[in-house]
Specification:
Helices cover about 50% and strands about 10% of the residues. The strands form four sheets. It has a two-stranded antiparallel sheet with strand order 1-2. The chain has a two-stranded antiparallel ribbon with strand order 3-4. Strands 5-6 form a two-stranded antiparallel sheet.
């Protein structure tokens, strides 16, 4: 990975990943960007147990403890590693994704902090009981909407004529001779008319074709069921319904995160446990960010006729679904 600021080499040794970075950059920021990039695209939570920093002639080594329990944990990763597009292996989408993460971290830090923190919450919850996983997945979608998408969408949704009518109604309510407490309650209710909320924001994203109607409905069902649990019998139909909701919510979360980083390209869409679909997505520019492109994203021709496609953590996904199927939520 090359830019005007740095050159990076990432070497996957299977048991661990080795990263070399040279150039003039903020070490802590680049470490954050790499940790999120590697973790999000691989479905793991990287832990840096050894790090060396050189500044001029000064070389400093750091050794850190790691949590062994995290080493075996993973979640389904959102984008494929090796995919043929027009006869060549696509590396551009991966490279571009990193440079857009780096750009957002430096220029729209709130976006980065929101997506990174919500992804870490989803990762932690996915490796716990299904009840917490369901609730966290749905609330993490809501968190990204509130932090990033809704401030942009509210500008489009604002109806000046409607807002003017609300003010007129409020003024008339103020003139009513009723109990002040009740009057203030009514005024607050009227003031909230037409406000943008998570479900409405998702509806706008459906209209923009960033997400599907099915994903929005699945999120609503999962959010409600996790927040208001009740006992339901364990049936095959119930298990299938729960699995579909969780899969759709994961797809929705991934689409929102990838959109923040101007991603376009191949993406996994979960639905079938053993064969997630690979879908090519074009960029839907919601946030008005300028997409960054890698300078060295040269397509690679495969040396063999068939490229083995790395599938996303099927074992842990199947195990997680077994836990979900035993849940008690509607």
């Amino acid at each position: 990975l090359k830019s005007d600021e740095f050159e990076i080499s990432i070497i996957d040794h299977k048991e661990y990943v080795e990263v070399y970075a040279n150039g003039d950059f903020d070490v802590d920021k680049l470490f954050q960007a790499l940790r999120f990039y590697i973790g999000f695209t691989s479905g793991t939570l990287p832990q840096a147990y050894a790090m060396s920093k050189r500044s001029g002639s000064e070389l400093t080594h750091y050794v850190r403890s790691i949590r062994n329990s995290i080493k075996s944990q993973s979640i389904p990763h959102p984008i494929p590693e090796n995919i043929l597009i027009d006869g060549v292996i696509d590396v551009k989408s991966h490279y571009d994704l990193f440079f857009n993460i780096w750009h957002v971290l430096n220029n729209h830090n709130v976006y980065f902090e929101s997506t990174y923190s919500q992804w870490k919450r989803v990762f932690a919850a996915f490796n716990t009981e299904s009840a917490l996983s369901n609730l966290t997945s749905s609330t993490s979608v809501e968190g990204i909407l509130i932090d990033i998408f809704m401030p942009k969408l509210v500008e489009e949704a604002r109806d000046e004529e409607y807002e003017k009518q609300k003010i007129e109604i409020i003024e008339k309510i103020k003139a009513l001779e009723i109990d002040p407490t009740k009057r203030n309650t009514i005024i607050k209710q009227v003031a909230g008319w037409g406000n943008l909320y998570a479900a409405k924001a998702l509806g706008m994203l459906v209209d923009k074709k960033l997400i599907s109607t099915a994903e929005k409905k699945a999120w609503e069902k999962l959010r409600h069921a996790a927040a208001h649990p009740k006992f339901t019998p364990h049936t095959i139909e119930r298990q299938i319904k729960e699995y579909n909701r969780v899969s759709s919510c994961i797809n929705l979360f991934n689409k929102l995160v990838l959109n923040v980083y101007s991603y376009s390209g191949a993406q996994f869409e979960f639905g079938e446990v053993r064969q997630p679909k690979i879908v090519l997505h074009d960029l839907v520019n919601i946030l008005g960010l300028e997409k960054q492109e890698a300078k060295n994203s040269v397509p690679m021709k495969p040396e063999i006729e068939k490229v083995e496609q790395a599938e996303p953590s099927r074992g842990v996904f199947v195990q997680k679904l077994k836990e979900i199927f035993s849940g008690l939520f509607k």
